[in-house]
C-alpha cells in the first residue's frame, strides 16, 4: 500500500516558524500544501490503486482530493488513522460540518466527536497503528490501497518520519518498528 502524509497545513506553517501551537482547529492546507497534494497525485498516477483510506481531518481530505479528481476510487473515511491528539490542530470537525464541506464523502459512521478529549499517549497511537496494520495485512487488496494520514500515525506504523506531501510504499505484513523516535 501507499502511505501519503497530508500536505502542509496552516498549523504546520505557523508551528514550524514559531515552535508554538497557533491555536488553529482542523486546519486546511496552505497554498503550498495544495501544491504538494497536486504533486503527490500526479506522481501516483501510474500506480495501480482501487481504494483510498483517508483520515477525517480537513487537511487529509484536501490532500486526497487531487487523487480522486484524477481517478475514481472506493473511499473509506477512517478516524483510526487520525493524527495523535496533542495540539489544537488535532481537534476535528463534526461529521455534519465535514459532510457540508466534502459532500462526495460519507461521514455518517463517525460519532459527533471522533477525536480524543485529551492528549493521546505514544502507546495509544502505536496500538492504533498495530490494529490498522493487522487489519490491512488481512485484506487481499492492500497492495492497491492509498492511505492519506498524518505524521505521528505513519511514524507509529512504519518507524519513518515523513515530511508534508511525501509518500512511501508500505507492506502491512512486515513487523512493526522495533523503536520509534518521537520528536521532543
TrEMBL record:
* Record GO terms (molecular function): phosphatase activity
Q: Which InterPro entries match?
A: His_Pase_superF_clade-1, His_PPase_superfam, PG/BPGM_mutase_AS, PGM_Phosphatase
Gene Ontology cellular component terms for the protein in this record = cytoplasm
Quote the Pfam families the UniProt record gives.
His_Phos_1 (PF00300)
> Which domain of life does this protein belong to?
Bacteria
Per its record, how is this protein called by name?
Answer: Phosphoglycerate mutase
Protein species of origin: Acidiphilium cryptum (strain JF-5)
> What is the taxonomic lineage of the source species?
Bacteria, Pseudomonadati, Pseudomonadota, Alphaproteobacteria, Acetobacterales
Amino acid at each position: 500500500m501507499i502511505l501519503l502524509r497530508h500536505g502542509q497545513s496552516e498549523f504546520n506553517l505557523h508551528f514550524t516558524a514559531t515552535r508554538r501551537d497557533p491555536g488553529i482547529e482542523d486546519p486546511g492546507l496552505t497554498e503550498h500544501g495544495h501544491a504538494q497534494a497536486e504533486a503527490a497525485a500526479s506522481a501516483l498516477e501510474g500506480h495501480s490503486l482501487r481504494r483510498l483510506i483517508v483520515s477525517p481531518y480537513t487537511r487529509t481530505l484536501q490532500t486526497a482530493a487531487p487523487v480522486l479528481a484524477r481517478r475514481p476510487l472506493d473511499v473509506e473515511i477512517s478516524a483510526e488513522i487520525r493524527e495523535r491528539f496533542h495540539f489544537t490542530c488535532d481537534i476535528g470537525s463534526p461529521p455534519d460540518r465535514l459532510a457540508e464541506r466534502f459532500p462526495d464523502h460519507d461521514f455518517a459512521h463517525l460519532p459527533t466527536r471522533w477525536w480524543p478529549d485529551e492528549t493521546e499517549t505514544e502507546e495509544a497511537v502505536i496500538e492504533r497503528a498495530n490494529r490498522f496494520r493487522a487489519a490491512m495485512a488481512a485484506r487481499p487488496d492492500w497492495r492497491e490501497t492509498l492511505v492519506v494520514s498524518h505524521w505521528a500515525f505513519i511514524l507509529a506504523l512504519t518507524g519513518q518520519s515523513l515530511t508534508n506531501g511525501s509518500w512511501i510504499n508500505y507492506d502491512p505484513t512486515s513487523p512493526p518498528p522495533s523503536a520509534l523516535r518521537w520528536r521532543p
